[in-house]
Amino acid sequence: MEVNIGVWIVVLSVLILAYRWITRNNNYFHDKPIPSMAVQPLFGSTGPLILKKFSFHDFVHHIYVKYPNAKIFGLFDALMPIFVVRDPELIKKITVKDFDHFIDHRPFFGNSENDNPYSIFGKTLFAMGGQKWRDMRATLSPAFTGSKMRKMFELVIECSESVAHYYANQSENKVEVELNDLCTRFSSDVIATCAFGMRMNSFTDRENDFYDNGKKMMRFERLSVALRMFALKLCPTLVGQLGIDIIDRNQIRYFSALIMDAVKERRTKGITRTDMINLLIQARQGILKHHDEKEGDEGFATAKESSIGKTNVKSNMTDIEMIAQAFVFFLAGFETVATTLTFLMYDLAMNKDVQQRLYEEIVATNEHLQGKHLNYDTLQKMKYLDMAVTESMRLRPAAAFLDRICVHDYELDDGQGLKFTINKGTTVWIPTQGLHLDPKYYPNPEKFDPERFSEENKASINPMTYLPFGIGPRNCIGSRFALMEIKAVVYYLLLKFSMEVNSKTPIPLKLRKGFTIVGAEGEVMIDLRARKA
Fold it and tell me: Which helix (H) or strand (E) holds 85?
């Protein structure tokens, strides 16, 4: 009996200590002059998201509208206090004016280099922090300029034409397609040729290893991955030291071998190719330098490079860091571009008037080319195409929120009486999805209306309320590439087909629920109907 009592005392003591550890930060926002969301043990304020009651985008919009009069409010992501900034002027302060206080991303999956020295993701540009990030950004930035995109554009055109030809050969009338499948296969082929120097056709060779490994790597909705993500959020350092990463080692080994084999072959055989591997080799050798370029109008959504990215630095890139940059280029290009393209094609199928006007612009452009291939500069002149892409990314941005971590105590002051300290180590969220659907900035925000971004209207848009590629020096380095890829394939598909809804098309489109990357829930079916010659 005494033994049983002793055991219960130990168990109770452990539970009490665990509860105190879990709830140790629960009062964090109580001395801040801002509202904050309720907290649940372990789940924090994000329980409905973790339990798959919301998609990530719907959750961000839900919490955004919860405090319509607040410029900033607090919540807990598991055990981590988060400041959610709703006000465009404060967003500008944090991401641009006072950037040095918020230079880093939060190690979102516990995969920073400090937490997990074995993590490939921890060595990517996205995960790097401080001076290391500054140097890598400056090293890589010249690889993503307009002049480099022009040289790579021919590779993108080959993939875009290949998709259109494949479906044209399937039927003389119409073919039913699943958009997730179409778009991931296209983006896989583009990344294979532009980043890895491999010519693939995932439409005719449907079981190729490159596409198969990419699909396996991006299955973030699996239970095993969800458990790893949750564990990494709760105790990132411990889990990282155990060598656990968010991405399976088999896929890491596969893509690492591809990159290093390509680099070795090019060095030994003197091969030069206008792709990302070649640019990374040049960056590592210090050959790739920033040169001032005359920036044309490359679209409203294109992220502009800051002075940090335009600084010439001496490269110290290691083999593993070069692998990591190519690796993250794959991650962004495979899933994010595919999802954005899926949403755009769905929006065009659902809005026949927009599709018809875009088709007329494409036909006029094609006639102007007089049988020549589409080129990068001509693509940038297609204003309505840019408007349609820009509007689709407003409705469903690839990232529901942006994050920054405070690296020095920061005295936030809005100049109107709101003043308090954001402590070092605390995370800030910028709710992209909430801003994009705020009727204060975009009237009738649920409507797909490219006219919002016409020459007459776009000047009135506050740039802090449109953030599909982020904002400030840590914006997306690959925005030009992503937009080029998306626009090119839409151009060639609409030349040959109209996009139409059918009985299987999900109306409205629903997003995957839970703590996962954005994507449509289930299949997204439409018809591609061949245009009459």
Answer: strand 80-85
